[in-house]
Amino acid sequence: MxxxxxxxxxxxxxxxxxxxxxxxxxxxxxxxxxxxxxxAFAGLEKRGIGVARxxxxxxxxxHNVPTINQHLPIKDLISRKQVETMxxxxxxxxxxxYGLGHLYQGIVHVIAPExxxxxxxxxxxxxxxxxxTHGAFGTISFGIGTSExxxxxxxxxxxxxxPKQIKIEINGKTSNGVSAKDVILYVISELGTGGATGAFxxxxxxxxxxxxxxxxxxxxxxxxxxxxxxxxxxxxxxxFAYCRNKPFAPKGKKWHAALEYWKTLFTDADATFDKNFSFxxxxxxxxxxxxxxxxxxxxxxxxxxxxxxTSFERSLEYMNFSKGDKLKGKKVNWVFIGSCTNSRIEDLxxxxxxxxxxxxxxxxxxxxxxxxxxxxxxxxxxxxxxILLEAGFVLREPGCSACLAMNDDKIPAGDYCVSTSNRxxxxxxxPGARTLLASxxxxxxxxxxxxxxxVREFLN
Length: 460
What we know:
Elements lengths: L4 H9 E4 L5 E4 L2 E4 L5 H10 L9 E4 L16 H17 L3 E2 L9 H7 L8 E4 L13 E4 L2 H10 L1 E4 L4 E7 L8 H12 L8 E5 L1 H4 L3 H9 L8 E3 L4 H7 L8 H11 L12 E6 L6 E3 L7 E3 L10 H10 L14 E4 L7 H11 L9 E4 L4 H9 L2 H7 L25 E4 L14 E4 L2 H10 L11
Parallel strand pairs: 3-4, 3-6, 4-5, 6-7, 9-10, 9-12, 10-11, 15-16, 15-17, 17-18
Antiparallel strand pairs: 1-2, 2-8, 13-14
């Protein structure tokens, strides 16, 4: 029987299926951070039970951590309490923690791939919606709630209904100045934030195949923003090359055995999906959002559309925009380059290449936050930190930062921020903050010129 990539991975992990109910799904890797784990650990302690498989867990701190002076005590009392609670729980249950100062510390969805913890064919969960990122490797990866975090800690399993499946095929070559972030923002603007509700999306086509692993992670990261449970991409030679020699990837004979299995992970030619969508990459231009959900996006030379829904008008009121406005030329006060969407070394290289020899606008406050200690060290080794410094930027220490403002990095009320993060909800980057989602290249251009620009005008 023909099967999709999702079917093959799902079938390999179902322990049993309850009649007229969910499946008991085995979970290969469980990623844990300080925000959604305290109640789960407390539940285990209350019931007097331990963690089922300690070695299957990767733990770090990311959401609440400051991005400057990480060697000093955390000033915010709530953030400090959450980080200290994480440290206590990991010690109590025997889990290794990549805490502040650790060589491997960083955003959970950045460090797991770069360490080789995320590998093809896995099931992987985390108490964080953007766990969909790891689907770029050909994994079934999705976010779970705190009660489910406890369930996985206790049993290494999860009760799950098998979701519907959607195929999104993207073909063609992107034009100069158009990135993976623009591609996924375009798809979300076309399908809407409910276009894939509850389903798993497989991304395929020549455009996807031409992307690096870091670009694929950006695409899968934002699959959740169209309502999907997760996204995934079939592994190929680009995937295998990325995984090879990573610290926790298999070695020697185990590598060759894993590779043979990974090469079977693809959708059979005549397998069917519940829905199919097709897009042409040549239709994609640099994108920018104008509203308060990621589906409210336009290409840089379009105008804000004219809709009459109450929620649409409320969104424009919050953003202080009007129907028919063009965003090109709008002055901005803040730029944030970071988050689990765009904080990897390729993202920082793109920014450094653009800003080299330039200076940021004096009125722009720029937060450049790497996704991991490894990314920071690599950027320093390549001299990216110096390029940024000479352009008026500062490369900070790793963390989620201004993506969600659970830490010190907040955008002031009423200010506009061009952000490489994944969500532009009301107050997401701070109470009253106005977020415009864009690619690292578009964000870098906004920082330099102090306004929203069409970056293609400044590329050779």
